[in-house]
Prior knowledge:
Blueprint: E1 2-11, E2 17-20, E3 26-35, E4 40-46, E5 52-60, E6 63-65, E7 69-71, E8 80-84, E9 91-100
Antiparallel strand pairs: 1-9, 2-8, 3-6, 3-7, 3-9, 4-5, 4-8
Amino acid sequence: MLFSKYKFTISVSHGQGRVITPELRGVIEHLMVIPRHHVIYDFRILDSEDDEVFCSIDQLGRLDHKDGIVVGKTTSESIRLIMDNSSRNIDFDVILIIKER
Length: 101
């Protein structure tokens, strides 16, 4: 099994922020969203066809998700990491650990 680790920083302005990743394929084994300060926020992952792959509403503080999120089912695709309704305009670190196919 081959695992890859990706780290992205989302800068939030006016309560919103987003990042487009490089092309990925596999299963997100561990998703971590780490705010730099204590904050409430909504976090979503959208695939290339604007389908919602993951959603967390009114998250308080750090988010750790380990249930396995499939990205790029048939081919590699970029995904969008979207931060909404943040109570503060701060930076968030998003770490993805992906088991590649």
